[in-house]
Each structure stands twice: as structure tokens, then as C-alpha cells.
Design a protein that fits this description.
This protein folds into two domains: 107 residues, Urease, subunit C, domain 1; 262 residues, TIM Barrel, CATH 3.20.20.140. The protein contains 13 helices and 17 strands. The strands form four sheets. The protein has a six-stranded mixed beta sheet with strand order 3-2-7-15-16-17, with no helix packed on it. It has a four-stranded mixed beta sheet with strand order 5-4-1-6. Helix 3 packs across helix 4 and helix 5 runs parallel beside helix 6. 46% of the residues are buried.
């Protein structure tokens, strides 16, 4: 009898446990099937940077990370009664801005000579840790300025890759980052990013320092293996056309674009002949080379603010003379490139300017001959094309909900982009009128 009771109790217990086990699973399935909460963003007007069209008033329905509807009738029909509403009032709504050339892990007031930065540590490990912490502060300023995506072209110790992953995990606020890892150069060449005492550590392919074809191949592969999404190459007494063509070939096998740091005409010709994907900065250029750039569909990222307004007192005398001589020609180059239909993307080269002041690049592009709409395109749809990101840079259904709202009209005065009042990245509000950004 006791045995039967125990057996019966066991059966009952198993049935109860089974019954209790079902509801959580069902609840999870039901939770997955529930639509994500809706968010309705309203503003006085909205600008399409691709067409230049202005929609007034503007209403954007966001669900999760994505834009669900923009058409007023669809928004009205699809917005649930319990949707959260953010009314931005008399602001202009834009897609999140993109900066195609940054260095988040460096600071504007740092000296040019790497050996002067030992205050961050004498080992590669302490240097990398310091770079990541600096990058965290820079990323926050950049997002607050309305730049929801950046391409970071060179960082010590893969601090840019780490920073991107920490931001993506929601641990720190910041833009999406397309990281490059270490810049490729040669021993003793420009753009060497050791930033640790060379008496302790001299660098090799892992740190982007490559002198032989085998080292160049390994340098590309190592950056890719550790998270680089673009390969940055520094020209200027470094790689010849054969070397650079090898680097481009290996990067393209990895489906990674190659961005070439170029300041001299002869280096520009090498970069174009080797088939890089973008030219960073500007050099004196012939009409023939511009035709080749157009034919090969190479993008220009002119970093115009730095090219026109870099404080010359920070530079060695020989650099100052060259910049003073060449700067006026950069405006002409930009105007020719635009007339030819060459893709031009905005890249501020921050930290050469302070982080958070990235919009200065758009102002410099206008100064050099762009219309405000062209400058806005350069920091949205054109930059997205250079970064190979098809899911953003416009406010349209099915794209990522990266939204920025500003005072004024950026189509008449690009300086209005300095007045950022609202930032949303991937459906999450970073800052809104009357609220402080999250800490």
C-alpha cells in the first residue's frame, strides 16, 4: 500500500512538473511572436539626402531597430494606440550621419610623434588599454553630434574592434564602427601606430608593419582575422605599385575594401593603378588620373577640413610649405570630381579635429564648392556606399532606424547640423529635446 502510494505520488509529481514546464516554454514562444513595441517620431519636416525632397510634416514609425513606415497614411494606419510618441516639434529630421574617416582612439591635442605619447604606457598592452578608453569618450561625443556610423581608419592594438563590439553589446554609447585595425606601412614609414616605446616593441605584420611580400600578405590576413572590416594602407615612401596590388588582391579575396592614405601625386598614381577602393585625403591630381579614378569607381574621401584648415604651426616646416602651396588646388580637384560623377564621401579625420566636431568636414566641403545637399549626401548615402552599408543613410521602410533631428534647415545652411537635438541609433534614443544623453 505504501509502495503504491509512493508510486502514485511520483506519477502525480511528474505530471505536475510536466505541466509546470509547459507554460514557460509557451510563454517564451508567445513572447517571440509578440511584435516589438512601436515608436512614432514626429517632426516639422524631413529631408531625403538622396533626392533633396522635403516632407512636411514628418512621421516615422519605428519598430525595434528598423523603420516600419514613413508614408503618412501607412504610419497612421499601422501605428498602434499604445505606441510611444516622440514629438520633436519644429525640428528637421534626417538620417543618421556617417563619417568615413575617423580615429576615435586618438586625441586632437596629441603630438604627431608617437614617441611623445609614452604617458599612456611603455608597453603595447597599456597603450592598447589607453586607446580603448580614449575611444570610449570619443565615441560618445561623436554619437551626440549626430554621427551614428563611422569608419575608423587605424587604431593601436585593435582597440577600434574592441570598442565596436562593446558599443554593439550596449555597454557603452557610440556609433557603429567599421574598424581597420592597424594601418599597413613599412619599417620606419609614416602612419606607424606603435605608440609604445620602440625599445620595448618594434612591431611586425601583426601591427601592420610589412617590408616583404610575405609580410604584406600576413599583415592583411592578421588584421582581417582580428576583426578589421577595411584595410588601411599608408603611402608615402612605403609600397610600390606591385606591393600595393598584392595588398589589394589579398584584401579583396577577404572581401575587404582598401583605403589608401595619399598626400603626394606619385603616391596617388600608385594607388589608382593598384586598384584601391578609396583615396583618403587629397594630392595634386591630373585630369588623366581623375578619369582613371572614375573608370575604376574609386571613391574620394578628401578630409577637406584638415586639408584646408589644419593648424600649420603643428607641422614640420617642409610640410607647411607644401600644404600652403597645394591647398588652393584641392578645391579645384573636388569640383572636377563632382562634375565627373566621382563618388565623394565625407570624412573628418577626427582626431585631427576634436571628436564631436565632425560636422566641420561638411562645412569645409561646402566651402570647397559643394552645395549643402551635396555635403549632406556625402555624409549619408555616399558614405554608406563607401562603407558598403546598404541598411542605412535614408529614412525609408526596411532600413535601420538611425535618425537625427536638428534646428534650422541644413539644405540652406549646413551649419544647422551643429544644432543636434535628437539622436536615435538602431531604434534606441540616445538624446532627445529636454533630456540629457544617458551616462
Amino acid at each position: 500500500m505504501a509502495h503504491c502510494f509512493r508510486s502514485g505520488s511520483l506519477v502525480i509529481a511528474l505530471v505536475l512538473l510536466s505541466a509546470l514546464a509547459v507554460p514557460p516554454a509557451m510563454a517564451a514562444a508567445e513572447e517571440e511572436s509578440q511584435p516589438e513595441p512601436a515608436l512614432l517620431v514626429r517632426a516639422a519636416r524631413m529631408v531625403d539626402p538622396e533626392s533633396g525632397e522635403v516632407t512636411a510634416p514628418a512621421a516615422v514609425l519605428v519598430r525595434g531597430r528598423m523603420i516600419e513606415a514613413v508614408d503618412p497614411e501607412t504610419v497612421q494606419a499601422d501605428t498602434p494606440a499604445d505606441a510611444e510618441v516622440i514629438d520633436l516639434g519644429d525640428l528637421t529630421l534626417l538620417p543618421g550621419l556617417i563619417d568615413a574617416h575617423t580615429h576615435l582612439t586618438y586625441q586632437a591635442d596629441e603630438p604627431l610623434t608617437p614617441t611623445d605619447t609614452f604617458k599612456y604606457g611603455y608597453s603595447p598592452y597599456s597603450a592598447a588599454a589607453a586607446r580603448a578608453l580614449i575611444g570610449a569618450a570619443s565615441a560618445r561625443k561623436t554619437l551626440a553630434a549626430g554621427f551614428t556610423t563611422v569608419r575608423d581608419l587605424g587604431a593601436w592594438g585593435f582597440s577600434d574592434v574592441t570598442l565596436d563590439r562593446v558599443i554593439e553589446a550596449g555597454i557603452l554609447p557610440g556609433p557603429d564602427i567599421v574598424p581597420a585595425g592597424h594601418v599597413l606601412t613599412v619599417t620606419g614609414g609614416p602612419c606607424n601606430q606603435l605608440l609604445a616605446d620602440p625599445r620595448v616593441f618594434d612591431g611586425g605584420p601583426e601591427q601592420g608593419v610589412a617590408d616583404t611580400p610575405d609580410e604584406m600578405i600576413e599583415a592583411v590576413r592578421y588584421q582581417a582575422r582580428h576583426g578589421a572590416e577595411v584595410i588601411k594602407v599608408c603611402l608615402g615612401g612605403t609600397f610600390d605599385e606591385e606591393d600595393l596590388a598584392l595588398i589589394v588582391e589579398i584584401a579583396h579575396r577577404k572581401k575587404l575594401p582598401v583605403a589608401a592614405h595619399v598626400l603626394e601625386p606619385e603616391d596617388l598614381e600608385v594607388a589608382v593603378a593598384a586598384g584601391v577602393d578609396s583615396i583618403e585625403h587629397l594630392a595634386l591630381v591630373t585630369d588623366e588620373t581623375l578619369e582613371q579614378i572614375k573608370e575604376k569607381k574609386i571613391a574620394l574621401v578628401p578630409t577637406m577640413e584638415v586639408m584646408l584648415h589644419y593648424p600649420l604651426e603643428k607641422l614640420p616646416p617642409e610640410w607647411r610649405e607644401r600644404i600652403e602651396r597645394e591647398a588652393p588646388h584641392h578645391k579645384e580637384t573636388l569640383q572636377k570630381a563632382l562634375a565627373m560623377g566621382i563618388l565623394v564621401a565625407a570624412g573628418s579625420d577626427a582626431a585631427e579635429i576634436p571628436h564631436g566636431e565632425n560636422v566641420r568636414e561638411l562645412e569645409a566641403l561646402v566651402e570647397a564648392g559643394m552645395t549643402p545637399l551635396q555635403a549632406l549626401r556625402a555624409a549619408t548615402v555616399a558614405a554608406a556606399q563607401v562603407l558598403r552599408l546598404e541598411d542605412r543613410a535614408r529614412i525609408a521602410p526596411g532600413l535601420r532606424a538611425d535618425l537625427v533631428a536638428v534646428d534650422g534647415d541644413p539644405l540652406t545652411d549646413v551649419g544647422a547640423l551643429r544644432q543636434v537635438r535628437f539622436v536615435m541609433k538602431a531604434g534606441k534614443v540616445f538624446t532627445s529635446p529636454g533630456t540629457a544623453p544617458p551616462r
